[in-house]
Design a protein that fits this description.
Elements (H helix, E strand, L loop, with lengths): L15 E3 L4 E3 L2 H10 L11 H10 L3 H13 L3 H11 L5 H15 L3 H14 L3 H13 L8 H17 L3 H14 L3 H14 L16 H14 L2
Helix pairs in contact: 1-4, 2-3, 3-4, 4-5, 6-7, 7-8, 8-9, 9-10
């Protein structure tokens, strides 16, 4: 049985739009839940005047809005800003808030490319492929950090390939998968590269199921593309 949280604060008439994730939030509790579960998608820029106005005028949290404004002006850390909002919703106990604080600390110890990849991975998991693609490409445009190792960049190229594949951009996906294997050889990624290359050329990928002979070629290709996309 799932858990249900009864919100203490009113549902707002106007939502707060999270640009980083492309979603609307309608209560302080929703904002706290987002920060707790998607911390890599947030950054210090989230705590701006727009958020403070929404908290004060829509969510009825004038004191919290004032604390955030004062905190930003005083240079309070991103960690403390997050904990202020999550704690104000009264949804998480002291242990959970402590765990969130530890996660925030660990993020601060990561290399910039690692933080960006975590952010991109969360976007990809949330089916925000285009936003994830921008983050992965940003990493690849940066100076290569040798301390991160070849496997790290192989994973970035692979995940970028997944983004392209989900958009049916199979030629680009195949190029990414092949580049990933140059950094970190992997049989499964090589197989995905071959499948993507076949789909890019309009060829039928290998399948244990034998399709009906009277199916139109265009419908066949659409079905293969759907099956390939569902593999991610």
């Amino acid at each position: 049985m799932g858990l249900v949280t009864i919100c203490k604060y009113n549902r707002t008439s106007a939502p707060f739009y999270i640009r980083q994730a492309g979603i609307n939030l309608y209560s302080l509790e929703e904002l706290a839940w987002f920060l707790y579960h998607n911390i890599c998608l947030a950054d210090r820029q989230l705590f701006d005047d727009r958020l403070c106005r929404w908290l004060s005028e829509e969510a009825g949290c004038k004191d919290l809005a004032r604390r955030i404004q004062n905190g930003v002006a005083a240079g309070v850390s991103f960690q403390n800003l997050v904990l202020s909002v999550v704690g104000a919703a009264d949804m998480y106990d002291s242990r959970e808030l402590s765990e969130l604080g530890e996660r925030l600390k660990s993020l601060g110890s990561l290399q910039e490319q690692e933080r960006l990849k975590m952010r991109a991975d969360e976007l990809l998991d949330n089916r925000s492929e285009w936003a994830a693609m921008e983050e992965y490409r940003h990493i690849l445009r940066m100076h290569q950090n040798n301390r991160l190792g070849m496997a790290f960049y192989g994973a970035v190229w692979n995940n970028l390939g997944v983004c392209y594949a989900r958009q049916f951009l199979f030629r680009e996906a195949a190029d990414c998968f092949e580049t990933s294997c140059e950094y970190a050889p992997d049989e499964e990624v090589e197989r995905q590269a071959e499948l993507a290359r076949q789909l890019a050329e309009g060829e039928r990928p290998p399948s244990e199921k034998k399709p009906a002979d009277d199916v139109l070629p265009q419908k066949k290709l659409l079905r293969w593309e759907k099956e390939y996309r569902m593999s991610f």
